[in-house]
From TrEMBL:
Gene Ontology CC annotations of this record: small ribosomal subunit
UniProt protein name: Small ribosomal subunit protein uS4
Top-level taxon of origin: Bacteria
Pfam families linked: Ribosomal_S4 (PF00163), S4 (PF01479)
Function: With S5 and S12 plays an important role in translational accuracy. One of the primary rRNA binding proteins, it binds directly to 16S rRNA where it nucleates assembly of the body of the 30S subunit.
UniProt KW keywords: Ribonucleoprotein, Ribosomal protein, RNA-binding, rRNA-binding
InterPro entries in the record: Ribosomal_uS4, Ribosomal_uS4_bac-type, Ribosomal_uS4_CS, Ribosomal_uS4_N, S4_RNA-bd, S4_RNA-bd_sf
Family label: Belongs to the universal ribosomal protein uS4 family.
Alphabetized GO MF terms: rRNA binding; structural constituent of ribosome
Domain Small ribosomal subunit protein uS4 N-terminal: 1-99
Parts forming coiled coils: none
């Protein structure tokens, strides 16, 4: 995704969606200069528009989808799966599906500075799951799975001097990382502590 496209996404959402290391958190961020939706006329900017319920749900859905880098079809399938699962909150199931993606776990581990980079690393075959190379960013990890960097990839650019960075990198409690072996163990379901998005609003969008 290009920097200009990211800026438009942030401006439509009304807040910065991307993480440190990406353009949203640099002095060049267009959102700072133009904190209003793209295409707005000067006369429109003077009046705060009232967002409809549908519009609010749409914006929240777009926030989550774009932050995780998931296409519309795949995202709607995640929501459908969450709604059809019996005995569990659909919001909880949706959150688990998003967080359990291999590209997201690579990012959470600190092996990549952003989710787009983690998707690239997975797609190019640099990541191993249970001693097997996996090139599908959306691959769903489960409790007991082990994730590591492929042996032949450990000296390439993105992974150089990684040990120092990993020592200080905060990781979620459901991922256990062994610095010595460089192997991460998925030891439970993702917990949604301090999750910044309203997944209830996302479910409502697809229930209309």
């Amino acid at each position: 995704m290009t920097g200009d496209k990211k800026c438009k996404i942030c401006r439509r959402a009304g807040e910065k969606l991307f993480l440190k290391g990406e353009k949203c958190f640099t002095p060049k961020c267009i959102f700072v200069k133009k904190p209003y939706p793209p295409g707005k006329l000067d006369s429109d900017r003077k009046h705060k528009s009232v967002r409809s319920e549908f519009g609010a749900h749409l914006i929240e859905k777009q926030k989550v989808r774009n932050v995780y880098g998931v296409g519309e079809k795949q995202f709607s399938n995640y929501v459908k799966k969450a709604k059809n699962k019996k005995g569990v909150s659909p919001m909880e199931t949706l959150y688990e599906s998003l967080e359990s993606r291999l590209d997201n776990v690579v990012f959470r581990l600190g092996l990549a500075s952003s989710r787009p980079l983690s998707r690239q690393l997975v797609s190019h075959g640099h990541i191993i799951v249970n001693d097997r190379k996996v090139t599908i960013p959306s691959y769903q990890l489960a409790s007991g799975d082990k994730v590591s960097i492929r042996g032949g990839s450990r000296d390439i650019g993105p992974f150089k001097e990684l040990a120092t960075k990993l020592e200080k990198h905060p990781r979620p409690e459901w991922i256990k990382f062994d610095m010595g072996s460089g192997v991460a163990l998925i030891q439970g379901k993702p917990k949604d502590a301090n999750f910044p998005f309203n997944l209830s609003s996302v479910i409502e969008f697809y229930s209309r």
